[in-house]
Amino acid sequence: MSVRLTALIFVLALSVFAADITIGCGQPYVYGPVVQKYARTGENDVWRLQVGSEIWSVPEDFYYKVSLGDTVKFDGKTWSIVMLANGTVPPGQVPAVPPSIANPPGTTPSQTPRY
Q1: β-strand 47-51 against 30-39: which pairing, if any?
Q2: Which end of the chain has fewer beta carbons closer than 10 Å to its terminal beta carbon, N or C?
Q3: By mean pLDDT, which of 6-10, 31-35, 77-81 is the weakest?
Q4: Contacts of 104 (CB under 8 A, 6+ apart)
Q5: Would you say the pTM of this structure is higher than 0.70?
Q6: Concatenated DSSP letters for the chain?
Q7: How big is the CA angle at 64 (ends 90 and 73), to the nearest 5 degrees?
Q8: What gap in Å lies between CA 28 and CA 61, rounded to an integer?
Q9: Cα 60 vs. chain centroid, distance in angstroms?
């Protein structure tokens, strides 16, 4: 075989190996609004949420805590509510924009620019 053909085969083999390692590994990251809730599917108690267009199994306590329209996130370990359906941040969570930035000193909320 020529050197070029050997090099091409080597590069193709490495790319297939790299794709196999990187695609499909790790936990999924989920972020989006809850569109639908499903409970007790089959004989086992399984609680599922439809987030965007995907359906995900969730822990029972999180299923009962979340409402339709809430924005949720799964970071590979835990589920959390990012924003409630009414647009507020859940109690006990840090808002995405700290109040000091959202409402600088000397301004009122109506003077604060919306981004």
Answers
A1: antiparallel
A2: C
A3: 6-10
A4: 112
A5: no
A6: --HHHHHHHHHHHHHHHHHHHHTT-S---EEEEEEEEEE--SSS--EEEEETTEEEEE-HHHHHH--TT-EEEE-SS-EEEEE-TTSPPPTTS--SS-HHHHS-TT--GGGSPP-
A7: 50
A8: 20
A9: 18
Q: How many residues does the chain have?
A: 115
Bridge partners of residue 50, in order along the sequence: 36, 55
Paired tokens of 97: 């924009």
The two beta strands, 71-74 and 47-51, are: unpaired
Could you tell me the two tokens for 58? 């969730």
